[in-house]
Amino acid sequence: TFGERGSGTRWISSLVEAHTSRCQDLTNSYVSGWKHGLWGERQSLSLGANTLIIVAKKDIYAWILSLRKSPWHMPPFRNLTLSEFIRKEYYSICNDRKFQTCFDRARTEEMPERPDGKRWPNIIRMWSDKYQAWDAINPSRHRVLHVDYLSTLKNPDSFRQKLSALGIKSKAGSFQIGKY
Length: 180
Fold this sequence. Notes:
Layout: H1 9-19, H2 41-46, E1 52-57, H3 60-69, H4 82-87, E2 92-93, E3 110-111, H5 123-135, E4 143-148, H6 149-154, H7 156-165
Parallel strand pairs: 1-4
Antiparallel strand pairs: 2-3
């Protein structure tokens, strides 16, 4: 499951696990790279054709408000006005040691997210660039399921139906929906 921070990637992954026992989450692994990272050729070549790539997406306006409330890996973005928040040059800080991308970095070191190592001009451009890359994943090379977080939150069973339509067999019993 790929998607920007605050787009429901962890919750949507939990729905997949609730749906099927034949699931191996490769998110944040050496194979797939960082789930919030910019999709590129490395991920495309590393993941097999039978791998289901789920892209979680939240409406940009709801996402901005959510990220502003909890600016993951973004300490300098705390306590900014909305206007400052959407205009500030974007970069993230490696402040969580559980993520592989942070293992060799100081807790205050900038974590480059673009291939050229530069910062994004603002978070809106970052969101746009990342979703353009995820939207461009080649469907002839990979199975891709784009999931709208807010719609799935309202009707989680529709997500189960999408998984079933892709041939992903359901566990016996009811579909238990947990909150994250």
